[in-house]
Amino acid sequence: MTPESPVPYRLTRVGVVMTPEPGNADEAEGVLNPASGRGPDGQLYLLPRLVADGNVSRVGLARVVIEDGVPVSVEREGVVLQPDRGWERGVGNAGTEDPRTTWIDALGLHVMTYVAYGPLGPRTAVAVSEDLREWRRLGPVLFRYQDDLDMDLNLFHNKDTVFFPEPVTAPDGTESLAVLHRPMWDLGETKPGQGVRVPAGVEDERQSIWISYVPLSAVRDDLGALALWEQHRFVAGPQFPFEEVKIGGGPPPLRIPEGWLVLHHGVTGVIDSAFSQQQKVNYAAGALILDAEDPSRVIARTPEPLLAPETDDERSGIVPNVVFPTAIEEVDGRHFVFYGMADSKIGVALLERTD
């Protein structure tokens, strides 16, 4: 790492791997923001968000077609999660949105976080699977109360959540699973008139990346503990021009020699209601490096985006001007990043070191 290149990585576009299928009602409003994983068959799969008319989202499964070591397209294999629970549906809205999946070897499971678009708005939930096809819901996430924050994190909508692939040491010294998340401080989105409220010690009211922990021993005793998060810490907030409005996490953190590489998104423009499909924003991809031993500590970050909306597919769609990274996978020794394009299609970019 150098002052000129604090994060020694770059992203290079490879192409578009998935577009809405003509005549497929589940994809009428786009395919986007996929999770990913390797199945028991060794094949690489995407779990795309499929959006039907009325902004109703489901999670699909699609095998990635690879040619000459490069992801080029997908073969659809159906829907694996849809809003069929009461807390995933509201009056006039429903959705299981923006899945992120992490293979956690210590559990022998794929762990999915997703957004349940239910009666009170977007809420993070957790599900687990052995094969990417059959998912067991563990329910909506609960945040254990932490008195020094002077705030109940359960009050807030929360998105952009993703687990680390390996156990880490929590602030209290216990071996734990760690998860990044992005609380949304505007309580007025839930109860009009309440306005923006932030925890004690938080001076910047813009939406930022936080980290919480789950004791590994508790999860081994009861998988349901994966949905009970504790020891909450601020990680990073908006700092550079491409992050002026807010930032949020992306794919599962990738272990690198310097620590943990976290691809994130930074947002500029004007945010409408959290329930709206935004039209006046710009989403670009940047990167953080978190300390290997203490992943709540940022040791480097990109002052400019690694990938910003420049192509027609990234600039024109359901939500224009969006590059939204959500998955990283290794193919033949190289890492590829899958990302949402203007909330309409799925692109792929090559992740490479620059040193």
How would you describe this protein?
- With 355 residues, the protein is an all-beta fold.
- It has a single domain, classed as 5 Propeller (Tachylectin-2, Chain A).
- The protein is 3% helix and 52% strand.
- The strands form six sheets. Strands 12, 13, 14, 15, 16 and 17 form a six-stranded mixed sheet that branches.
- Strand 19 and strand 20 (259-269) form a beta hairpin.
- 48% of the residues are buried.
- This is Glycosidase.
- InterPro entries: Glyco_hydro_beta-prop_sf, Mannoside_phosphorylase.
- Keywords: Glycosidase, Glycosyltransferase, Hydrolase, Transferase.
- Belongs to the glycosyl hydrolase 130 family.
Please outline what is shown here.
The chain is mostly beta strands and 355 residues long.
Please describe the structure with a list of short key phrases separated by commas or semicolons.
355 residues; mainly beta; Tachylectin-2, Chain A; 6-stranded mixed β-sheet; 5-stranded antiparallel β-sheet; 2 helices
Helix count equals 2
Structural domain count: 1
Helicity level: under 10%
* Terminal residue distance: 9 Å
Name of the CATH architecture = 5 Propeller
CATH homolog superfamily: Glycosyl hydrolase domain, family 43
Characterize the biggest β-sheet. Answer: 6 strands, mixed
- Looking at the structure, the CATH topology is Tachylectin-2, Chain A
Mean pLDDT: 95
Output the radius of gyration: 19 Å
CATH level-1 class: Mainly Beta
Query: Any idea what the shape is?
Result: globular
How many beta-strand runs? 25
What share of residues are in beta strands? over 45%
Low-confidence stretches: none
Order of helices and strands: EEEEEEEEEEEEEEEEHEEEEEEHEEE
Structural class of the secondary structure composition?
mainly beta
